[in-house]
Design a protein that fits this description.
- By secondary structure, the chain is an alpha/beta fold.
- It has one domain (23-154): TolB, N-terminal domain (Rossmann fold, 3-Layer(aba) Sandwich).
- The chain has helices spanning 2-20, 36-50, 60-74, 81-92, 137-154, and strands spanning 23-27, 31-32, 54-57, 96-106, 109-118, 123-132.
- It starts with a helix and ends with a helix.
Length: 155
Amino acid sequence: MKHLLRVFTIALLLFTHAAYARGIAVLLPVTGSLTPFEKSELSKVVVAGLSSKFELKHGEEVDRFVKQSFQDESKKNDCDETNCYRRIAAQYHAQMIVALRVIDIEKGRYLVSTHLYDVATGDMASSQKEECAQCSFEKLKVLCNELIGRMSKAQ
């Protein structure tokens, strides 16, 4: 009976761990014509919005590795963004790549896009984009939070 109880307890712990395990994702550096401070703040929005779904790898060391990976790949004749994603994912044992891009259309008007790339399947698991007109930085943060929220629900 004690043995059966131990087996049951271990099975329950393993099931609970698996049920609450978060996958690993790498957050690419935020791109766009923003200041370093603004990029950092938007990265924080992404991390806050996805931290319940993923263990997010991000920060200066990750940014350096990502930039180096893309530089190395661009030197190849068969340059491929997918190869970069695979290399980045392998470095951090990640299943997903997260990207936030902010494109400056004109003064105060941005196109914001979020992407969640599944490295194993090679598919875009989620892709959201929305325009922000008459956009202050605070309004941009709110929009990014909304897009990340949609991405999180899609998972």
